[in-house]
Amino acid sequence: MMAWSERLSTLAQEIPPSGIRRFFDLAETMDDVISLGVGEPDFVTPWHIREAGLYALERGMTAYTANAGLFSLRTAISGYLSERFGLEYSPDSNILVTVGGSQAIDLALRVTVRPGDPILVPEPTYVAYRPLIHLAGGQAVSVPLRAENGFRLSEEDLLSCQSSMARTLILCNPSNPTGAVIERRALERLAKVIEEMDLLVIADEIYAEILYDADYCSIASVSGMRDRTVVVAGFSKAFAMTGWRLGYAAGPQEIIQTMLRVHQYSMLCAPVMAQMAALEALDKGLTDVSAMVTEYDRRRRLIVHGLRELGLPTANPQGAFYVFPEIRGTGLSSAAFAEDLLRQQRVAVVPGSVFGAPGEGFVRCSYATAIGQLERALERIRQYLRAGG
Amino acid sequence: MCADRDKELLKLLQQNAKLSNETLAVMLDEKVEWIEDQIASFEREGIIRGYSAIVNWDRIDQDRVTAIIEVTVIPQRTVGFDEVARRIYGFPEVEAVLLMSGTYDLQVVVSGHRIQEVARFVSERLATIDFIQSTTTHFILKTYKVDGVVMEGDDDDHRLVISP
After folding, report:
1. B162 and chain A: CB distance < 8 Å anywhere?
2. Nearest to residue A250, comparing CAs of A66, A122, A126, A92?
3. Do residues B36 and B65 share a domain?
4. Which chain A residue lies closest to B164 (C-alpha atoms)?
């Protein structure tokens, strides 16, 4: 018998088990579960985009592409970033097409983190950052976000971390899991502190297309930030293309080209048919995006209204497709609440603690779910709360 | 602006007429009274002509047949397309009548319980109307999508139950 713990990578073994896994396994065994736990759109990729992927296959486009991605796609991304967010990146040197935004985050960390580097992670936040920081040899430093600030990172939050000597900040804006958006003005104030602290920013802007009345901008477009920011984004959320696994990173040449150096050996290139579909998405898919956002917006109103009526304090999210209601009033931990709700009423939500300790007392509900399902879920939560939580 | 809100409301109702006024109000960020008033006035003005379910009849009634009939008309000085159309849509078995551009004039959609029933309608009722020059009947073999709704197929949620 192999002594696996002696054989397997210590770094990999040190990654804690996923906090979502347990709920997933439990929900999988149950029938008739309404899931508000899904972190992806319920829409299927618009047909013309799927068709572009099919057509690429029909034409026999089955070979590797350039390591950095098809030049035509990088050019389209460059044009899109310029038009949409005022970001100027050259398709030659500043853009790398990756396998999902996740790979872009992984690469960005791998090439910017030195052993033991402290990396600031405002929490609650997306679950992948900590493990990826760990694998890259860094040290995640939690920046607890405060509910009274709507879980938005403030200058004070950052300044309180000055003693950590952190070199990098990971900023997910709009936020998974809270749906909070740090708006332009606030980003400008943050930028000053970021410069003062000489931080590099890995800006996860995967939800940047899904906004509701927010004065949003990319942090890279704020004065002084471009040279110290890697923008990570992708097609998954905006175009409902999660399974295609296609994202990209845009940033300073030195970082992107170093990411490319790792990418060319670890991944070679992103799948060509997904790249062809993405090209179609940027070319003709933006009207689909706005139709989907209109639909999310209606669901957002419905779920925020519904949760508040149930007595759960709920901030109005300005982006993504998540709400983050507070469940402290039930006297339960977020994990106990989520498990209880699933067992008793078959509604799946994700405990806030999964997204970092400061998420305790809250749960994440995704409203990437049809209106009818949302209404049924709200009714079941009502039943659950009435039964005494 | 106001017309846009009206259109949004109408589109939502067209997609799902079962949404309650309360839900519609929350979704559109309007007062329930506004929703009630708008719907009442749409109904009064005949903008909303009715509410119905989209039924996949193929699953219920195997014998039921629907035909699309192309009709050419010789318009007369006193009898235009509208008058001929009126004579056609008066029959209860007629589901739709449309004036078309192209090689024929009126498109008529007729349903019946058996193929003979539709055939008899065409030969005895439709073809005999004055000013109708010809009819070409196409029977529908299978319905894939109607009013934006796919009739058969996979609308399962393929997503993982919980994902980050």
Report:
1. yes
2. A92
3. no
4. A39
* Contact map slice: B 18-77 vs A, CB within 8 A: 19, 23, 26-29
In a domain, A101, yes or no: yes
Task: State both tokens at A139.
Answer: 């040290």
Give the residue from A32, A127, A305 with the most B CB atoms within 10 Å of its CB, the best one to mutate.
Answer: A305
Distances (CA, A) of A257 to A253, A264, B94: 6, 10, 67
pLDDT digits (tens, 9 = 90+) for A104-162: 999 999 999 999 999 999 999 999 999 999 999 999 999 999 999 999 999 999 999 99
- On whether the CB atoms of residues B81 and B115 are closer than 8 A, the answer is no
Rounded to whole angstroms, the Cα distance separating A263 from A272 reads 15
Three-state SS string over A137-188 comes to: CCEEEEEECCHHHCCCCCHHHHHCCHHHCCCEEEEECCCCCCCCCCCHHHHH
Answering whether pTM is above 0.90, one says yes
What the block records as the tokens of A138 is: 């860094």
pLDDT tens figures, A45-95:
999 999 999 999 999 999 999 999 999 999 999 999 999 999 999 999 999
Q: How far apart are CA B27 and CA A371, in angstroms?
A: 10
Q: Is A27 on the interface with B (CB under 8 A)?
A: yes
Full domain range(s) for residue B29: 2-44
Q: Which DSSP string corresponds to B97-123? A: EEE-SSS-SEEEEEEESSHHHHHHIII
Please indicate, yes or no, if residue A356 is contained in any of the structural domains.
Answer: yes
Instruction: Indicate whether A170 and A212 sit together in one domain.
Output: yes
* ipTM rounded to 2 decimals: 0.84
Say whether pLDDT at A27 is over 80.
Answer: yes
Question: How many other CB atoms are found less than 10 A from the CB of residue B23?
Answer: 23
Give Cα B8 to chain centroid, integer Å.
20
